[in-house]
Amino acid sequence: MADHQRMRIHPVDLEAGGRHRPTAPLVPGGSFDVTVTATNPNARIGIYYEAGSSLSVWYDAHRLARGALPAFYQGHRNTTVLAVVMAGQAQLGGAVMSALQDAQRTGAVPLVFRADVPVRVELGSLRLWKVTSRVRCDLVVDSLGVNNPVNIKASNCKFSLKL
C-alpha cells in the first residue's frame, strides 16, 4: 500500500462530562473530550487541515455533541494528537432516553462519530486542491457517565474523500 493511502484520522479516546440536569431528563447536555490522532506517514507530502471542519457524536438519529478541529499544518512523517471538546444538548424523547439508559445499564452504548475535515495536500512547493476527508466511526462504549473516562469497547471506522 502506498504511503499516501495510509493517512488517517481516528478518534482514540473519548470522555463524557458536563452536567446532566435532573430537572430536564429528556435533555442530556454536556461535553465529550475527544482525542483525535492524525497520522501522516508519508515522507514527501504535508497536509494542511483547514478551517471549517465538523465533528459530531450521535446516538441513534440524535446529535449529542459537536465540535471542530483547529486549522493546522501537519508535516512529513508526523503524528499529531489533538484534544477537542465537543459540546451539545440533545432533545431526546422518552423512548429514546429509555433506550439510552438501558444501553448504559448493559455497558454497551452504540454511538456514531462523524468528521468532515477540509484538507489540502502539499507536495514539495505545490499545494494541491482542497478535498474533504470524511470519517464515520461506529462505536460501542461502556457508558456516558459524567466525568468518567468512556471506554471504547468496539469500533469500525470508514474513510472517504469528497472532491
From TrEMBL:
Presence of the UniProt keyword Ion transport in the record: no
Superkingdom assignment: Eukaryota
UniProt keyword Translocase present: no
Membrane topology value: Single-pass membrane protein
Biological-process GO terms, alphabetical: defense response to other organism
One cellular component (GO) term of this entry: plasma membrane
Late embryogenesis abundant protein LEA-2 subgroup domain residues: 35-137
Entry keyword set: Membrane, Transmembrane, Transmembrane helix
InterPro entries the UniProt entry points to: LEA_2 (IPR004864), NDR1-like (IPR044839)
UniProt subcellular location: Membrane
Protein's name according to its UniProt entry: Late embryogenesis abundant protein LEA-2 subgroup domain-containing protein
